[in-house]
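Because showing beats explaining, we think one record worth quoting, sequence and backbone structure tokens together, and here it is:
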Amino acid sequence: MAVILYAMALSLLLQGCLCSVPQANTGCLKWSKSQGDDVCCDICHPGNRLVTKCGPNPEKLCTPCEAGTFTTGPKNLRCDRCRQCVEAQVYVKQCTASSNTVCGCREGLICGGGDQCTFCVDKCGKGQEPDKRSCRPCPHGTFNNQTHQACKPWSTKCPNPDHDIVAKGNALSDIKCSNSSIIPPREIKKPEQTEQPWPLVLLAVLGTCLICFIVIITVAWNICHRTPEQEKEPEKDSEKMIIRPPSDDPRTLIAIECSFHEAQQEQGSSLESLASKDSAEQLLP
């Protein structure tokens, strides 16, 4: 009977102690069984560190972290110092008693060192891959079609067994495959309306030059291959008697008289030759 009364009294005392614990977001969040006159805390409120697990004064078991410090563990005995964003880093979220500072990087850079973003590196584009804190082009035989990713080797065969490789890969893309048995229709390029007719003008100019060249060659060939008879024709024309109107000049009269006598002599010689020819024919039997 005495044991039962003692247990009831202890239970009432424990309830009174629990009621006296402040209900704010400071101090202990979850209590455990008491050990004699001491009260024990299992979990502190977020942003509070555990001072001592058990003690006679419940309010002093957990205490809030000081400014510039934080804690994320419900049973941590100390608070950690808040992180500072330096160099190319920028503040994304300020530090609180229950969370650390969140840092990011300036535009054009990307976080390195995992989720904590401990440093900033150049943001590698497609066709590149990260190399320590900078970027390098994808080596031959590899490609990268994403941002800030490692380069991957080209495929050695097409995923579809009916397809063949029609183009090699490059730094930006993998190999290209297609069904080689199907020939794509060839596109006929239509001439643009704004296209200038310079080819026709060029052909006309070349044709004119060719005709002129042929004419020059023909004339030169005729000059070089003239016959002697064609060259003596002007001399025959010069031998023709030139009849001029009468003149009182004595020299002109003498020239006309001489020409007349020469003509008579030529005519007489021709008549004599004809007469001799006739007589010779008569003598023949």
Remarks:
- The radius of gyration is 63 Å.
